[in-house]
Design a protein that fits this description.
This protein is α+β, with helices and mostly antiparallel strands and about 300 residues long. The chain has 3 domains: about 80 residues, Pseudouridine synthase (2-Layer Sandwich), CATH 3.30.2350; about 130 residues, Pseudouridine synthase; about 80 residues. About 20% of the residues lie in helices and about 40% in strands. The protein has 7 helices and 20 strands. The strands form 4 sheets. Strands 1, 2, 3, 4, 7, 10, 11, 12, 13 and 14 form a 10-stranded mixed beta sheet that branches. It is globular, with a radius of gyration of 22 Å.
Length: about 300
């Protein structure tokens, strides 16, 4: 299911509310945390769908963020201590911000924020940074598909940017680096996740701070079928009865025996989804003797979601 998480609420609070609604014995998890300071799309996985977590997290994510120039903070967002600020009025023009964009595209090295859940020598970076001193975490590779400058508020020194990226990317780091490159310093003043692959926040269930559980009827109506994941990947249907048993037993299938399922957009091409009677299988590609085979990685029996 999709939850529209508000600012100030932890992702774990949303998951806990779903757990309390469904009761004991039902597995619940989320596919990619969202900072408490951010809002928007949070994908909550229920029952057997929790086994699809990594495949959902592999999908590209679409964000809308506001970069505030002239103020640099310890958290790279608006909640941290001010490290530096420019008292004089600054003028942020579209040409300046757009000139920074090419540096962020494609595979690049990115330094995560000091205040983050990443571990260094077994300790959370945010714990060390808050109790001792700000940690400068090592850079790591991320993949950013696009950065679009959507709006400039010259008088406020702000730029609204749309970012499409993959897992592990920090939008806070993009804002910080934009500020460093401009010479003004900057932080991310707000962030909203719009979508992850075909999962869109417009289909989300609203969540409010302090909610202990969700309306059970609303929740049940909001659960997406587990085969919704097939919208995100190249998808195929089993046409031969013997192939169904082979796939269930972990055997690979030649691609030419499968029937392609038309979908408007495959958000991720690293794997494929194969469906048959009572089965959904996420497969990787294998090439051998000039032929393509699909090798099952995760098989789900579709009789029920739990």
């Amino acid at each position: 299911m999709i939850i529209d998480k508000p600012e100030g609420v932890r992702s774990t609070a949303c998951v806990s509310a779903v757990k309390r609604t469904l009761g004991r014995g039902v597995k619940v998890g989320h596919a990619g945390t969202l900072d408490s300071t951010a809002q928007g799309l949070l994908i909550v996985l229920v029952g057997k769908a929790t086994r699809l977590c990594r495949y959902v997290m592999d999908l590209p994510k679409n964000y809308l963020g506001i970069v505030k120039f002239g103020v640099k903070t310890s958290t790279d967002d608006g909640t941290g201590d001010i490290l530096s600020s420019i008292d004089d009025e600054i003028s942020i023009e579209r040409d300046l911000v757009e000139s920074l964009v090419p540096s962020f595209l494609g595979i690049r090295m990115q330094r995560p924020p000091s205040i983050s859940a990443l571990k260094v020598d077994g300790r959370r970076a945010h714990v060390v940074s808050r109790s001792e001193k700000l940690m400068e975490l090592p850079s790591r590779p991320v993949f950013i598909t696009s950065v679009n400058v959507q709006r400039i508020s010259t008088d406020r020194g702000e730029a609204a940017i749309g970012v499409v990226c993959h897992k592990g990317t920090y939008i806070r780091s993009i804002a910080r680096d934009m500020g460093d490159m401009s010479g003004y310093g900057a932080h991310l003043s707000s962030l909203r996740r719009i979508s992850t692959g075909p999962f869109d926040v417009s289909d989300g269930v609203p969540f409010s701070e302090g909610m202990d559980c969700l309306d059970k009827e609303v929740l049940s109506q909001s659960l997406l079928p587990v085969d919704f994941i097939s919208r995100a990947y190249r998808s195929y249907e089993i046409t031969r009865h013997e192939d169904l048993g082979a796939l269930k037993n972990g055997l690979s299938l030649p691609l030419y025996t499968l029937k392609p399922i038309k979908n408007h957009k495959a958000w991720c091409c690293s794997r494929a989804v194969v469906t048959g009677k009572g089965l959904l299988s996420v497969c990787r590609f294998r090439f051998e003797d000039d032929r393509c085979y699909l090798v099952p990685e995760t098989n789900l029996l579709m009789e029920s979601l739990s």
